[in-house]
Amino acid sequence: MKHRTRLIIKIIATAVVIASVVAARLLSDDDVARFGIGQAALFLAFGVWALATIYLYWQWFHYTRQSWGIANAYRRKAGNLAVQSPRLDQAAMYLVPLWGILHRSHQAPETFLGLELRVLPVPALVVDLVGIAAIVALVLWAATRIVAWRNGRLPLAHTAYVVSHFVIFYTGYIGIEQINPGWLVLNVWHNAQYVLFVWLFNTNRFRSGIDPEARFLSTISQPKNAWKYFGSCLAISTLIYSALKLAVPLGVVIVAYQTINFHHYIVDALIWKLRRKEVGAQIIAQPGTG
Question: Which of 24, 100, 112, 242 has the fewest CB atoms within 10 Å of its CB?
Fold first, then answer.
C-alpha cells in the first residue's frame, strides 16, 4: 500500500509540474519553463522531501513578491498622496519575510504538512543580524509615515496594507513557533488577498455590464453580486478538494495541493504583472483615493 501511495504521489506531482512547464512554454517564458524542468528533475531524483522543501521556500518567495506587487498597486492608486520612499518600502517589505524564513530554517523542523522536510542550515547569528536590519528598516519606514501623516499626505490604504504585510509575515514565521499553523496564517492571508485582487480586476474589467462572451464571469463580477463571486470560489474549491480527499490517501492530497500551488506560482508569475498594460489598466482605476 505504501509503495502504491508513493507511486500515485509521483505520478500526480510529476504531471502537474509538467503541466506548469508546458504552460510556461506556451506563454513564451523560457526562464520559468527551465525552472519547472529543474524542479521536476529534483523531485524525481530525491523524492517527496524535495517537493516539500521547494514548496516551503518558493511559497515564501511567491507570497513576498506578490505582496510587494499589491503594495505597488496601492501606491499607484494613491497618486499624489503616495509617500515617495519606494526603496525603503521594498527593503522593509523584503527584510521582514527574510527574517521570518531564516528563523524558520534555523528551527529546522523535520516535517511540513505531514511530509519530510529538509531546510537550509542557518546559524542563529545570521537570523539575529537580519532581524536587526529588519527592525531598523521598520523604524525608518514608520518615521516616513509619521511625517506624511503630520503633513496630511498619508496614503491610508497603502499604509494599512503594508502594516498587514509586516504583521502577517512576522506572525506566520516568528510569532507562531509551529510550522504548520504559521503556514496556515500566511496561506489564508495570501489566498484572501489573491481572491480580492482578482475580484477587483474583474469588477473593473466588466464595469460596463454583462459581457455576452463571458456571461457567467461578468455576471458574478458585478459589484452587487459580490456574494455570488466569493460563494462560487468557495464552492468550486470545496468540491475539488473534497473529491481529492475522498478519492485518494491524505498524503496524496497534500502533495496534490502542493503541486497545484506550483502550477499557480508559475502561471501567476506570468500573468499578474502591473507593467502589462491590460493588467495595470484594470487594477489601477482612479488615482488619488489614498
Answer: 242
